[in-house]
Amino acid sequence: MSPDRRMVAVLAVAVLAGFAGLARAQPQSGIVRPTTEPSSPNAQLGAELYAGNCASCHGIGGDGIPVPRRGAGGIAGAGPALRDVGAEAADFYLRTGYMPLSSIHDEPGRDRVLLTDTEIRSLVSYVASLGTGPPVPVVRPQAGSIADGLHEFAEHCAGCHSIVGQGGFVTGARVPALQNATATQIAEAIRIGPYLMPSFSRRQISDAELNSIVAYVLSTRHPDNRGGWGIGNVGPVPEGVITWLVAAVAIVLFCMVLGARLRA
Amino acid sequence: MTLLSTIGRWLIALLTLLLGSLLRTAERAQRKAEREQRIVAPGEPAPRAELVVVALLLLAGLFAIGFVVVYAEFSPATISNELLGCCLALALLSVAGALTVFARRIVPDEELEHEYPPRGHPDEQLEAARIVRQSGQPITRKKLLAGAGAVAGGALGLAALAPALSLGPLLDTDPLYRTPWRRGLQLVDESGAPLPAADIEQGSFYTAFPQGADPEQIGAPVVVVRLSESALRLPADRAGWAPRGIVAFSKVCTHAGCAIALYRKPTFAALEPRPALVCPCHYSTFDPATGGTVIYGPAGRPLPQLPLMIDRVGRLRSAGNFSGPVGPSWWGVRTRRPSA
Predict the structure, then answer these.
(1) Which residue in A158, B10, B138, B268 is a FRET match for A46, CA 20 to 30 A apart?
(2) Nearest Cα residue to B277 out of B221, B219, B205, B209
(3) Domains of chain A, with CATH numbers?
(4) Pick from B206, B182, B178: which is nearest to B288 by CA?
């Protein structure tokens, strides 16, 4: 390698490293923070974060803003009231990255979580203090049965989320895959019904059934692919595509090779 | 009746005519073949191979008939799928075996080397036709073979057509209009427990059945949701069908008969799509607020709505039968209302 080339290589590596450093050093975008942030969760921090990041849509004190209106910073805000949603909903929306939304017209979905754990705890306890909502549910998947969970999941959830929790569509919205949801998030989503999902009360899904459903969903992350290849575990359409475009072509090619050898 | 028998007589006459003309042409061809000169050496007849082919073809026919019988006799919940697969596979394998034996043992496979003839020579074309015809002459039981082939082909065709019978009754559609619902019947959940109106929450959805009826009947299951009473836009003749905003619809999609297993409800109504019942098969989307009208997808009819009432102890009961026939459509589906 000539000295010139070595120089170029070293420069390129340096530039790339610089970019990587920049990416890591970048402030977490979009979150308004108090200048001095305490290291442990506290009510003051929760209130400040709420005022800076949530109030433009959810209103002061969680009253909600029923129709879009321009507020601080020219942001058009509108959102449901949070007075009685409790820690359950706040914990779900913040820990999955569903909230904060960059635009009120976006469909909330699993995203990068921009808040630190301390910030989330402060915000959750602040939202919980606004009214009389349910606490974060306690879920024990190890107490549930995967077989019962499959039965309940097929009845209540699989219509939208597909039987192995790969997600899909409902008219007007995407249905999220469940592969990255934690046990607590699954339980929270079932009880609160985020975005367009219906909620399920204890009358429909008891706490014991909830444990089983969570156990089943967690088990779908490592499906037992008896055929060797799950093809994404999405169902018959990709399986059919593979059958026709890969397997059928392979068989035809095999037959052609056989025929060519016979003729030779 | 007279119309049917007239059509039957016409059909028989037509069939006889067709058969007669076929036989006559076959006879003429035979006589012509006897007159022409030989090119292909008269081959050895292979009666045993012919018997094997006939047996295999009849076996194929038998398995194809077996397919039809299994399709008709077993419910899909039992082992019918495996049996159907086996019957079809064995029928096709038998046909394949018959064709293999036919090609290897019966059809002469002597190779004749020839200059490629210039195109458009009528003499050469006649000669080629003659070679083909004479090649078939060592086959002694042509009619038997053809008959066995016809049996196998006919039975396989029948097997392919048999599932079409599942498309539903063509003439007697009366049972399709009957549902187990009648006025005063209590709504129960899948475990048979009655549904109190107070338990039906907004933003959730419930499946219910008529008390004491067979839940497997197509008209039995309903999906129950609660909307805010101000959001309801039911047709004028359905006033009072939705006590406290609770509405019930048939759970069977009017397009292809799948279960309406999806309910979408907005968390924030101002910005999100309105509540809808969605079928997971082809995304037919029904608006519960306007009486089950189709707002998206291939369904051709609204979801039939079940009128509800609340009894003295606060339980949900049906106040009559559905607003329209339940399930996928058939001829004349729009002409009648369902009955108990």
Answers:
(1) B268
(2) B205
(3) 43-129 (1.10.760.10), 141-219 (1.10.760.10)
(4) B206
> CB A159 to CB B280 under 8 A?
yes
Task: Give the helix/strand (H/E) hosting B47.
Answer: helix B47-73
Q: How far is Cα A171 from Cα B297, in angstroms, rounded to an integer? A: 9
Q: Any idea how long chain A is? A: 264
Single-letter residue type at A78: A
Answer yes or no: is the ipTM higher than 0.90.
no
Superfamily the domain B175-335 falls into: Rieske [2Fe-2S] iron-sulphur domain (2.102.10.10)
Report the 10 Å Cβ neighbour count for A54: 24
Q: Residue type for B240, please?
A: G
- List chain A residues with CB under 8 Å of B203: 193, 198-199
Nearest-by-CA chain B residue for A204: B206
- The vertex-A206 CA angle with A202 and A211, nearest 5°, equals 130
Q: What is the DSSP string of A145-156?
A: -HHHHHHHHHHH
Q: What are phi and psi of B299, to 5 degrees?
A: -60, 140
Residue A200 has its nearest CB partner, among B204, B272, B296, at B204
Identify the CA nearest to B250 among candidates B210, B309, B298, B190: B210
Task: Determine the number of helices (DSSP H) and then strands (DSSP E) in chain B.
Answer: 6, 11
Residue ranges of the alpha helices (H) in chain A? 3-25, 43-53, 55-58, 86-95, 117-129, 146-156, 158-161, 183-192, 207-219, 236-242, 249-263
Nearest to A78 among B201, B203, B271 (CB): B271
pLDDT tens string for chain B (340 positions)? 466 677 788 888 888 888 888 788 878 877 776 676 667 777 777 888 889 999 999 999 999 999 988 888 877 667 677 888 899 999 999 999 999 999 888 877 677 677 776 666 778 788 888 888 777 777 777 788 888 999 999 999 998 888 887 776 767 778 888 899 999 999 999 889 999 999 999 999 999 999 998 888 889 999 999 999 999 999 999 989 999 999 999 999 999 999 998 999 999 888 888 999 999 889 999 999 999 999 999 999 999 999 999 999 999 999 999 999 998 888 778 888 887 7
